[in-house]
Amino acid sequence: MADLTRDDVAHLAGLARIDLSEAELDRMVGELGVILESVATVQQAPTDGVEPMSHPMPLVNVTRPDVVRPSLSPDAALAGAPDAEQQRFSVPRILDEE
Amino acid sequence: MSTTTGERTLGFDEALAAYDPAMGLEVHVELGTATKMFCGCPTEFGAEPNTQVCPVCLGLPGALPVVNAVAVESAIRIGLALNCSIASWCRFARKNYFYPDMPKNFQTSQYDEPIAFDGYLDVELEDGSVHRVEIERAHMEEDTGKSLHVGGSTGRIHGATHSLVDYNRAGIPLIEIVTKPILGTREKAPEVAKAYVSALRDLLKALEVSDVKMEQGSMRCDVNLSLAPSGSGALGTRTETKNVNSLRSVERAVRYEVGRHAAVLSGGGSITQETRHWHEDTGITTSGRVKSDAEDYRYFPEPDLVPVAPSVETVEALRATLPEPPAERRKRLQAEWGYSDLEMRDVLNAGLVDLIGETVAAGASPAAARKWWSGEVARRANTEGEDVPSYAARLGVTPAQVVELEGLVTGGRLNDSMARQAWEGVLDGEGTPTEVADARGLELVQDTGALEAAVDSVIAANPDVAEKIRGGKVQAVGALIGQVMKEMRGQADAATARQIILERLGQG
Amino acid sequence: MTTDLTRATAAELADLLTAGSVSSREVTRALLDRTAAVDGAVHSYLHVDEEGALAAADAVDRRRAAGEGLHALAGVPIAVKDVMATQGLPTTCGSRILEGWVPPYDATLVARLREAGMPILGKTNMDEFAMGSSTEHSAYGPSRNPWDLDRIPGGSGGGSSSVVASFQAPLAIGTDTGGSIRQPAAVTGTVGTKPTYGGVSRYGLVALASSLDQAGPCTRTVLDAALLHEVIGGHDPMDSTSIDAPVPPVVEAARRADVSGMRIGIVKELTGEGFQPGVQARFDEAVQHLVDAGAEVVEVSCPSFSYALAAYYLILPSEASSNLAKFDAMRYGLRVSPDGVDAPSAEQVMAATRDAGFGDEVKRRIILGTYALSSGYYDAYYGSAQKVRRLIADDFTRAFGSADVLVTPTAPTTAFRLGDKLDDPMAMYLNDIATIPANLAGIPGLSLPSGLADEDGLPAGFQVLAPAMADDRLYSVGAALEARLTAAWGGPLLDRAPEMDEVTR
């Protein structure tokens, strides 16, 4: 159950887009194992038939009218960009996908 | 990975001899709301890059989404128009994956609680038969930004050195409409796919929720396809062909994938579950990313948005706003206008229904409306590569002008051939039908003296024919009428000419 | 005028400003001078905005001179936790990955402070992305506890607790996801409130766990907390989870300080065993003070609380793993290329940046959350945690059937030494055992000092919890207790803290 292997952690780090070093992987396997063992106790709680709770307050149907609000200026939008070109965010080459 | 040479394919008929196709169609529609799904940025197409962005749709730290009320209403109306059940309580969910055009690195979507589910759409095929396509779900989500790939040879992602991202489109409301597996279509599979997308487009247009412009990407189609051995009733491994963005391409993509799957399967191979890219220019698909366990979207309920729980009253109020379903409307109009099946189909295929409706409403007869909008105008629009309504709109030619033209004919000023000339003048930009008739001197000759003289001269020149008519062969009169009209250079009323000839020859 | 402006409460400053006895510039200047003198030792601030604060002070002084109607706290300076977006001011969340980021917008809460004419002194230190109980996880070094500079000021909001405890600001903004306002208040002898979830807008609060986060006041008195609560509270259409109702009458409650006839519930599971004896002793005395003030004590049981920590450390990392995905080097913040890779892809740059830009604790929780949400494990972890969350909320509902408020020690211990728990994540997590249940259920909580623990002479905290939207009850109880304790001590507890020049010696 709480047996997280080094490969598991490497896979999760990939999903989370974190390039963990070998040393970090080694360390994290142990740390996560301890934490997981502790948090896995939720499975012992008497939760049969209990409705999961995703939101602390029971609000519903909060919407806004379809009315335009001012956007940022392109300068403000791009101000924090590590790199920009042609009023666009410049990003490294994207690996094949759509 | 070449995009010009396809893989081996079997012929369509050969493929169907051995396999049954199953399809699933996923259509993404951009809603025509004034603002984005979760923020107040405008949605106009074609704006300068990154001018329609704010902390929310840029995914800046701290920003929070708030749902666009009109987007929810549109989603419910689409669901109702697709005969779906509407969820009494549903949530948004986060679909987590990293991609540079997605500012938050999760897409706010819906997962196991779609706003609309379990519906259907009946689609009519060329032969008049109807196929019911079952709808699995319609859910709300948001669009991504757009990347411009720089440094590659053709602007493609492959070989690019870097990419430039514009987030104007990020956060535009999308409705994703997913069918259940479409089975039992056999050789009609490509046509059913096309007819479904076409019917869906008409429906969304009638609902006025989207401009449904496939060429601009406001309606996009993914085609899932699998083959199973004929009669097995099984479902094979599917591929998902992305972004098939015209009606014709939907049909072609289905046909291509059927042939490709069949070639793989009949060669003893197996289909890889993967995404395929459609190439409009070459009409083939190429392999995209393989669906693997790396594709773990880690959906969970969006904590920054509260549930959507439309009341029964809300849903019924929205139901009352639904327009007549396009298929029913078509039947009603055909009956009202008295068109034959063939005439109606031509009108539909030419996209003339609305224009004719407006013209009839303006006072024209349905026959005249059809006649004037489908002849010369259609030919010219086709040459220009436009549809008639947009062509007519560009030229400023209106339903009122058709009414005016018909009035000139029924009022006796123009005959049919003169009316055609007048209409050509209108299309040439010479003015209204009356102005063209005036300018070109188009007018039936009302002076019967000139007509009587012409009749006498034609009878004199054709004694044999005249004798036959005197003898009772009235149908021979056509030959004489033709000559009289020729003598009058067309500016006479054929019915009057006929009457005078028959009177002269004792048959009046 | 002999008042030491740095030691005055916000309420006192407001009176002085209204009376025209001092200007906002004088107050702001005094606080900035205090910062120049002591923050080298305490390190409450990540960024001090001297120029902006003085300009805002001058603006409010001009408006006052012109006879304009001003907000009660106009001219009273404030420090803001670095997790709130501040237009034109760096906002780093204590992380390398946001180093130098200047937001192009204000959080709603910050906009309300500016509208009220409150000069913003600077941005306070915090554990990276609010993950921690000590500020030791700040990428920019820890803050220190004014009571003992070798000890932690609590976390994640140790910058905000220490900034008020060291008299660099009368008021600060904190955020509380599992105790990050209340636990720092407890260990620094200050006051902190986590309002009802949805009571204060989260727009512009850089999310750790969206369904748990709530911003609130960090102050030295209960009345000051209520005054600040009123400024920042109330509906915000930019936050879907914001409650569309008036702010509960918190200031009135703090001024009345009336607990007569109130039923005070002691949570059986959050008392006694596991709590430092000195902390427990001060708690018991505080309860007796409330009884003396006319309250009635009842005992309640919340059996599901034993699963609260586990549920919390699944829900928080899950939401955080998704919330923190946006830090990817594409649009803002740090961008790092992987070593030895020629022309790296966006994917590689993302992964290298996130490895370099996030600290260990952040990475640990992201990986944990990624695991808890991943296919095949969702039901066992995240799903079970959401059910436990419901059980905890139900426990509170039952408890509030027999008690008007619940009380507990805020944290199990007084401030521990820097480094003591840094290598033991689970030990660190246990600091929040008494504060976490309120976040899971969305209810409000307040911590105020209950005295100094006998064994170490360090402050202990007393926590009051109330039903959702009954935040005013926190202030009734808090103010009543504060009045009696202050009388018993012969002055505010912080008067007993060592002078800074003494501790920096």
Automatic annotation (TrEMBL), chain A:
GO:BP terms for this protein? glutaminyl-tRNAGln biosynthesis via transamidation; regulation of translational fidelity; translation
Q: Would the keyword Ligase be found if you checked this record's keyword annotation?
A: yes
Q: What ranges does the record give for the region Disordered, renumbered to this chain?
A: 71-98
Q: Look at the named UniProt entry and state the broad enzyme category this protein falls under.
A: ligase
- Top-level taxonomic group: Bacteria
Q: Which Pfam families match?
A: GatC
Q: What is its EC number?
A: 6.3.5.-
**Does the keyword Nucleotidyltransferase belong to this entry?**
no
Q: Which reaction does it catalyse?
A: L-glutamyl-tRNA(Gln) + L-glutamine + ATP + H2O = L-glutaminyl-tRNA(Gln) + L-glutamate + ADP + phosphate + H(+); L-aspartyl-tRNA(Asn) + L-glutamine + ATP + H2O = L-asparaginyl-tRNA(Asn) + L-glutamate + ADP + phosphate + 2 H(+)
Q: Where are the transmembrane segments?
A: none
User: What is an example of a GO molecular function annotated in this UniProt entry?
Assistant: ATP binding
Protein purpose: Allows the formation of correctly charged Asn-tRNA(Asn) or Gln-tRNA(Gln) through the transamidation of misacylated Asp-tRNA(Asn) or Glu-tRNA(Gln) in organisms which lack either or both of asparaginyl-tRNA or glutaminyl-tRNA synthetases. The reaction takes place in the presence of glutamine and ATP through an activated phospho-Asp-tRNA(Asn) or phospho-Glu-tRNA(Gln).
Subunit info here reads: Heterotrimer of A, B and C subunits.
Q: Which family does it belong to?
A: Belongs to the GatC family.
UniProt protein name: Aspartyl/glutamyl-tRNA(Asn/Gln) amidotransferase subunit C
- Species name: Phycicoccus avicenniae
Give the classification, highest ranks: Bacteria, Bacillati, Actinomycetota, Actinomycetes, Micrococcales
UniProtKB/TrEMBL annotation, chain B:
Any one GO BP annotation for this protein: translation
Q: Which UniProt keywords apply?
A: ATP-binding, Ligase, Nucleotide-binding, Protein biosynthesis
Catalyzed reaction equations: L-aspartyl-tRNA(Asn) + L-glutamine + ATP + H2O = L-asparaginyl-tRNA(Asn) + L-glutamate + ADP + phosphate + 2 H(+); L-glutamyl-tRNA(Gln) + L-glutamine + ATP + H2O = L-glutaminyl-tRNA(Gln) + L-glutamate + ADP + phosphate + H(+)
- Record's InterPro entries? Asn/Gln-tRNA_amidoTrfase_suB/E (IPR017959), Asn/Gln-tRNA_Trfase_suB/E_cat (IPR006075), Asn/Gln_amidotransferase (IPR018027), Asn/Gln_tRNA_amidoTrase-B-like (IPR003789), GatB (IPR004413), GatB_Yqey_C_2 (IPR023168), Gln-tRNA_amidoTrfase_suB_CS (IPR017958), Gln_synth/guanido_kin_cat_dom (IPR014746)
Question: Which EC class is the enzyme in?
Answer: ligase
Provide the GO MF annotations for this entry: ATP binding; glutaminyl-tRNA synthase (glutamine-hydrolyzing) activity
EC assignment: the record states: 6.3.5.-
Q: Which residues form the Asn/Gln amidotransferase domain?
A: 354-505
How it assembles, according to the record, is: Heterotrimer of A, B and C subunits.
Family according to the record: Belongs to the GatB/GatE family. GatB subfamily.
Output the NCBIfam families linked to this UniProt entry: gatB, PRK05477.1-2, PRK05477.1-3, PRK05477.1-4
Described purpose of this protein according to its UniProt entry: Allows the formation of correctly charged Asn-tRNA(Asn) or Gln-tRNA(Gln) through the transamidation of misacylated Asp-tRNA(Asn) or Glu-tRNA(Gln) in organisms which lack either or both of asparaginyl-tRNA or glutaminyl-tRNA synthetases. The reaction takes place in the presence of glutamine and ATP through an activated phospho-Asp-tRNA(Asn) or phospho-Glu-tRNA(Gln).
Name used for this protein in its record: Aspartyl/glutamyl-tRNA(Asn/Gln) amidotransferase subunit B
What organism does the record attribute this protein to?
Phycicoccus avicenniae
Q: What is the lineage of its organism?
A: Bacteria, Bacillati, Actinomycetota, Actinomycetes, Micrococcales
From TrEMBL, chain C:
Statement: the UniProt record of this protein carries the keyword Transmembrane:
no
Q: Which GO terms describe its molecular function?
A: ATP binding; glutaminyl-tRNA synthase (glutamine-hydrolyzing) activity
The record's annotation in Pfam families points to:
Amidase
The top EC class is ligase
- Which reaction equations make up its catalytic activity? L-glutamyl-tRNA(Gln) + L-glutamine + ATP + H2O = L-glutaminyl-tRNA(Gln) + L-glutamate + ADP + phosphate + H(+)
Which SUPFAM superfamilies does the UniProt entry name for this protein?
Amidase signature (AS) enzymes
Residue ranges of the Amidase domain? 26-474
Residue ranges annotated as transmembrane are none
Q: Where do the catalytic residues lie? A: K81, S156, S180
Annotated GO CC locations: glutamyl-tRNA(Gln) amidotransferase complex
GO BP terms, alphabetized: translation
Q: What is its EC number?
A: 6.3.5.7
Record has Cytoplasm as a keyword: no
* Highest taxon of source: Bacteria
What the entry lists under InterPro entries is as follows: Amidase, Amidase_CS, Amidase_dom, AS_sf, GatA
- Keyword annotations: ATP-binding, Ligase, Nucleotide-binding, Protein biosynthesis
Q: Which PANTHER family match?
A: GLUTAMYL-TRNA(GLN) AMIDOTRANSFERASE SUBUNIT A, TRANSAMIDASE
Assembly, per entry: Heterotrimer of A, B and C subunits.
User: Which NCBIfam families does the record cross-reference, listed alphabetically?
Assistant: gatA
Q: What does this protein do?
A: Allows the formation of correctly charged Gln-tRNA(Gln) through the transamidation of misacylated Glu-tRNA(Gln) in organisms which lack glutaminyl-tRNA synthetase. The reaction takes place in the presence of glutamine and ATP through an activated gamma-phospho-Glu-tRNA(Gln).
* The family this protein is said to belong to: Belongs to the amidase family. GatA subfamily.
Name of the protein: Glutamyl-tRNA(Gln) amidotransferase subunit A
Q: Which gene encodes it?
A: gatA
